[in-house]
Amino acid sequence: GPVYAVVPAAGVGERMKAGIPKQYLTLAGKTLAEHTLGRLLSFSPIDSVIVSVSSQDPWWPTLPVASHRRVSTVAGGKTRAESVRNGVAQALMDGGEEAWVLVHDMARPLVRLSDIQALMEQCDEQGAILALPVVDTIKQSGEDLHIDSTVDRERIWRALTPQLFPAARLYEALSADLDGVTDEASAIERQGGRPRLVAGQSDNIKITVPEDLPLARFYLARQFE
Ligand code: CTP
Ligand code: MG
């Protein structure tokens, strides 16, 4: 079926402390939003891109990419999960029961096409997500902050985006209680699904705090070496 990219972009970027939502900050002469959408639009298996935008957002309409013929918007929600649900609902309406959705944070401008390719190739009916194996030794603590145990690192992963699912399956999962749902896979897991993990690249960072911007500048330059 058709593949829709769903891009939540209705956050305010509180931790970035920039005065404007972080997706409109500039990296190497382009906004983060344009970096992210440019990459998704240049990946040919993606038929169209649905962006969740806040109704109070005066910046979005000023971007050239906002009028791209394969880009449309839906209303953002109070939480990321609600913003994603609105986008997935639109994908289902446009693409029908056979549609797939590739959910990707607007705040991850450095995603590589080779990673999106790997995600699509390794995905099965259960869906799949990009993830990174943790590199630190992981401790489980009690409430008293003393260590109870060391967790086997081999099986601990950090979830990234994109995350790829059949639209109907994800919509159903996101129609349940969203309390504590911080990514699409966690909603699917609650329904008993077991999405596939696909190892991604560590430069696919989520721009979150001020120091992430110089880091992104470094990674971006390195991607074009
Ligand atoms: N997002 C969204 N709707 C929300 C909250 C977040 O679409 N109600 C989006 C953000 O725009 C971002 C992605 O989800 O692209 C990841 O969220 P995060 O990194 O937390 O961004 P913000 O919520 O904007 O940042 P903060 O939590 O620091 O305020
Ligand atoms: Mg947030």
From TrEMBL:
Pathway field: Isoprenoid biosynthesis; isopentenyl diphosphate biosynthesis via DXP pathway; isopentenyl diphosphate from 1-deoxy-D-xylulose 5-phosphate: step 2/6
Q: Where is this site: Transition state stabilizer?
A: 15, 22
**InterPro entries, alphabetically?**
IspD (IPR001228), IspD/TarI (IPR034683), IspD/TarI_cytidylyltransf_bact (IPR050088), Nucleotide-diphossugar_trans (IPR029044)
Q: Which GO terms describe its molecular function?
A: 2-C-methyl-D-erythritol 4-phosphate cytidylyltransferase activity
Q: Which UniProt keywords apply?
A: Isoprene biosynthesis, Nucleotidyltransferase, Transferase
Q: Tell me its EC number(s), please.
A: 2.7.7.60
Catalysis performed (reactions): 2-C-methyl-D-erythritol 4-phosphate + CTP + H(+) = 4-CDP-2-C-methyl-D-erythritol + diphosphate
Q: Name one GO biological process term.
A: isopentenyl diphosphate biosynthetic process, methylerythritol 4-phosphate pathway
Source taxon at top rank: Bacteria
Q: Where is this site: Positions MEP for the nucleophilic attack?
A: 153, 206
In UniProt terms, what function does this protein have?
A: Catalyzes the formation of 4-diphosphocytidyl-2-C-methyl-D-erythritol from CTP and 2-C-methyl-D-erythritol 4-phosphate (MEP).
Report the sequence similarity comment from the record. Belongs to the IspD/TarI cytidylyltransferase family. IspD subfamily.
This chain belongs to the protein called 2-C-methyl-D-erythritol 4-phosphate cytidylyltransferase
**Native source organism of the sequence:** Alcanivorax profundi
